[in-house]
Amino acid sequence: MTGSLADPKTFFGSASRRRLVWALAVLVVVLLVRIATESGTIPPSPAPAPAVDYNPYAEIVRLQERLRAFPDDAAAYAGLGLAHLQQVREDGDASHYQQAEAAFQTALARQPEQIDGLVGMGMLALARHDFAGSIPWAEAALVVNPYRAEAVGLLVDAYVELGRYAEAVETGQAMVDLRPGVGSYSRASYLRELYGDTNGAIDAMQMALDVAVPGAESWRWTAVQLGHLHFNRGDWAQADVYYQAALKSNALYPFALAGRGRVAAAQGDTDSAIRFYAQAVDRLPLPEFAIPLGDLYTLTGQSEQAAGQYGLVRVIQRLNQAAGMAVDMELALFEADYGDPATALQLARQAYTARSSIYAADVLAWALHRNGADDEAQRYSAESLRLGTQDALLHYHAGVIAHSLGDEIAARQHLHRALALNPAFSFLRAENAHTLLASLRE
Questions:
Q1: What is the pTM for the complete model shown?
Q2: In whole angstroms, what is the distance from residue 116 CA to residue 154 CA?
Q3: Which terminus of the chain, N or C, has fewer Cβ atoms within 10 Å?
C-alpha cells in the first residue's frame, strides 16, 4: 500500500534529509520570507532572484534597525530569532541560541500567538537537542494554524530523534500531502533511508534538489545530502559530482569541502583528503569535520595534529553545552572511541533515556562494548538495526561486538555487510574491519 504505514519503504510514493540541521535551515529561510512579506508592519519585497543567498548577519542588522524604530513589532522579533538560528550555520557559534531565544520570547510576550515565534521556539528546542521539548511548541503553532507545514515538520523531526518512527512516518506523509516541497521531500528521504530504502531515499532527495532554489544555501545543502546518500552506498564518483556542484555555487562551502575530503580519502588520496577537511574546519569548526580530520592525521602518522583535532572537538562540545545544547549522545560516541569508556557509558545511558532512537541504541551498545559489557551491548546493537537501516557503522559495531562474544558467524556477516555497504565508511573503522576479518579467516 503506497503512501501509508503499511509499507514504510514505499512511504511518500503517492505525493509526488538529510539531517536535522538542514531541515531547520530550510525552515528559517521559509519563515523569514514569510515574515518579510506577510507582516502588516513590514512592506512586501519583490521575489528574490535565483542564486542570491540569504545573509543572516545582514538580516540581523536590518531587523535590529527595524526594532529600534518599531519596538513592538512581534514579527520582526521572530525574524530576528530565526536569523540568529541561521547564523549558527554560518559561523558555528552556538551563543546565537541564547539571542534567538530572547528574540522569540520577546515576540511571544508582545503577541502570544505569533506563529513564527512559536515555530521558532520549536526549532530552537530541536537545535539544542531538546526533542521532546520541541513538540509542545509545534502543537501550539498548529493550534494557531493547522495548515502550517513547518510546524508539522518539527513534529516529524522530533519523532525521528525520539525513536517514535511510526508517528514520524504518519506525520511525514501528512506534511507531504499538505505541502510537497524541499522540506517534506527531504524528510521523506531520511525516513526511507532509516527503513533501508536507499534508492527511494535518493529519489526523494533528488526531488528536493529539483525544487530548491538553484544556487541558494538550501540548494547546496540538499546537493551535499544527495552526495552523502551516494557515498554511503559506495558510489564515490557520483557523490563527488554533487559535492563539486555545490562548490561551483560556493567554493568555500564547508559541507561540500568535507564531502570531497571523504571521497579523496576513500580513493586513497590522503593528502587531498586532509586538505579538504582542513579547509572545512577552518571555515566552520564542527565535530563532524574535526573528527575525520583527526582520523586522517592518525592514519598518516601525524599524532600531534590528530590530538589537536580531537582536542578541538572537546572544546566545541563544551561551548555547545554552555549554550544549552544536549550533546550526551555525540560526546558518548566520541569518548568511547577516543577518550574515557566509563564517561562514555554514563553519557550514553543518559542519551538513550532522553532519546531512544536507533542511533542512541547504537551509541549505548558501543559504550557498553568499550566497558566490556558485551552481552548487554549485543541487545542494544540488535535494537539499532531493527529498522533495516543500511548504515555501515551500525553493522561494524555489531560485528565487533559479536566478535568479542565469540560469535564468528555473526561477526563475519556484519563486518562484510559494513564493507559491502561502503568500503570506506569510516577511515579507522574500515581499516579495523579488514583486520578483524583477516583474523577470522585464519
A1: 0.86
A2: 13
A3: C
